[in-house]
Amino acid sequence: MSDDDKARRLAALRACTRILANPPRENLAERLARLVSESADAYDLTGPLDFYGDEDGVVGELERRVAELLGTQAAAYFPSGTMAQQVALRIWAARTGNPLVALHPLAHPEQYERDALKAVSGLRTVHPTRDPRMPSADEVRDLDEPFGTLMLELPLRVAGFVLPTWEELTQTVAAARERDAVVHFDGARLWECAPHFGRSLADIAGLADSVYVSFYKSLGALSGAALAAPADVVAEAKAWRHRYGGQIYQQFPAALSALAGLRNELPRLPSYVAHAALVARALREGLAEGGANWPRTYPDVPHTHEFQVWLPYPEDVLNAAALAQAEERGESLFGRAEFFEPRLPGLSMTEVSVEAGTLAWTEADIRAAAADFARRLPPAA
């Protein structure tokens, strides 16, 4: 997109009377105002500023809160999930004496971290499966190389925010234990997994030796992450955090926003997950009613509050239709999320994230808007 196209799209979205998913981001003034408003209810703002993440300040409070929620002995705050996860995996490699990490090729370290595990920590990776799902217990058990750590991303975002069943998850973890491996969960979006599994966050985290969670994904914080694990692992992780440059002078804005997210957004996530099933169904039906060719959502019933929408049209055709709908009708289905062609030319996908604003949309609302969107597309072949 050119700068002019981006500006036109943003102006159209800001003028919309309603947006189903992925609304435009706030400007600086709006975000600062919300931070002050929400933080006042989440933490005592008369307390001292944090310095280097001291345990008596807001960062320490956030670490204690995460450990409590996940049922672990301790937690360490990190400025980024990439750093938290690299630290966790290098610790386990040192403790097991095995630098090989078994993980999915669609997992975050393989997709978005520029080979940091190899380049920074000297670790190697192996893939139990290439199918767009979590590896099965048999695939882990039958892996032909000894590995020290099994990393599972819950949910597996690139594959469609997909999760296994609880039985499948416990069996896969057990298979790793049979191989004398430790288990680490990439739980960047762990917060919204509880409804699918029908288990508490502590029950889910309790299956693993360590868990990473994000604060800006799902919870809407400014940034930041945490690594939750036994106390001795967290103590070592804090030493590595310092070495990696994560011992930042002051982090109170991000920590305050994370506490606000735990207070305000975490309790709402089950309602978002429940509404996502209605949204996905209504989108499929409305797109079909409007004449769209082969509309699909994946999964059909979302496992979390996020899912994929697939349509057999070029990305520029779909993005043009989205812009026209926003400008002419004053509403948007997909907000700032763009369609793109991830695999085959002419087969496009976008991601939908159900959040607070989505709850105001009824099934009839979604079907009508989806049908209007579809009518802006070329006739099906």
From TrEMBL:
Top-level taxon of origin: Bacteria
Entry-linked InterPro entries: ArAA_b-elim_lyase/Thr_aldolase, PyrdxlP-dep_Trfase, PyrdxlP-dep_Trfase_major, PyrdxlP-dep_Trfase_small
The protein's required cofactors: pyridoxal 5'-phosphate
Domain Aromatic amino acid beta-eliminating lyase/threonine aldolase as annotated: residue spans: 55-284
Family matches, as Pfam families: Beta_elim_lyase
Keyword Ribosomal protein: no
Family: Belongs to the threonine aldolase family.
UniProt protein name: Threonine aldolase
Native source organism of the sequence: Actinacidiphila epipremni
